[in-house]
Amino acid sequence: MNQHVITSPDKESTIVIDQGELISYSKFGEELIHQKGDPGWRNADTEMFPIIGPTEDNDFMVETERGDAVQDQHGLLRELAYSVVNETDHSIVYSKTYTKNTLVKNSKYPDKSTKKMVSWPYSFMFSKKFSVTDDALKIEDAFRKIDSVLKIFDFQDEYSDSKIEQLVAQREKARSEKNWKLADKLRDKLKSMGILVQDQKLKK
């Protein structure tokens, strides 16, 4: 994914986003945000989910209602790759989707962690929208609960969770029946709603 440059309508404000991370916000040529390499966070745009804080003292294990999960400091959200869902002249929307129990490579291993892979027992989808006006930068973050047990976030928009879950279920059924035309149609419908579906290989 290349860097994306988004400007305000009056062309006086510019943001630069690299792989979903905001790395620059300038107005009238003046940089307004923390830069990588400066003292402080290693990132300019830091994400922490599903936990915040260190886990080393507990051997990188986090207890959940579905059993223990391997998590490193500040969670695995930052380890997932973004895809662009929608882009206009003055805004862009990114999305990450995680399927429960999928092993994800831990970037802290081996220098700062003994765990090569991390995982989480719940599915979720995270969206991030950047929009620039003449006066401000607006960032909207939201979680959708793909997994019915994940109820700690509420994504407020015109699409209900039940509608999304219904479309996802219909698409999985179409894929299992090898109805690829219908599956593609449902995938496009979900994408238009801001839901990016990442397929896993079907079991034979």
Query: What CATH architecture of the largest domain do you see?
Result: Distorted Sandwich
Order of helices and strands: EEEEEEEEEEEEHH
Characterize the biggest β-sheet: 4 strands, antiparallel
Number of strands: 12
Q: What is the level 1 CATH name of the largest domain?
A: Mainly Beta
Poorly predicted segments: 149-159, 200-204
* Overall pLDDT confidence: 83
Our Rg estimate from Cα atoms comes to 19 Å
Task: Give me the secondary-structure category.
Answer: alpha+beta
Indicate the proportion of strand residues: 25-35%
Number of domains: 2
List the strand order in the largest sheet.
1-2-3-4
Instruction: Give the overall form.
Output: flat
Helix count, DSSP H or I runs of 4 or more residues: 2
Distance between the termini: 32 Å
Task: Kindly report the CATH topology of the largest domain.
Answer: Beta-galactosidase, Chain A, domain 5
Structure, described:
This protein is α+β, with helices and mostly antiparallel strands and 204 residues long. Helices cover 14% and strands 30% of the residues. It has 2 domains: 4-156, Beta-galactosidase, Chain A, domain 5 (Distorted Sandwich); 157-199, no CATH class. It has helices at residues 161-176, 180-192, and strands spanning 4-7, 13-18, 21-27, 30-31, 61-64, 67-70, 83-87, 91-98, 104-105, 117-118, 124-132, 137-144. It has a 4-stranded antiparallel β-sheet with strand order 1-2-3-4, with no helix packed on it. It has a 4-stranded antiparallel β-sheet with strand order 7-8-11-12, with no helix packed on it. A two-stranded antiparallel sheet has the order 5-6. α1 (161-176) packs antiparallel against α2 (180-192).
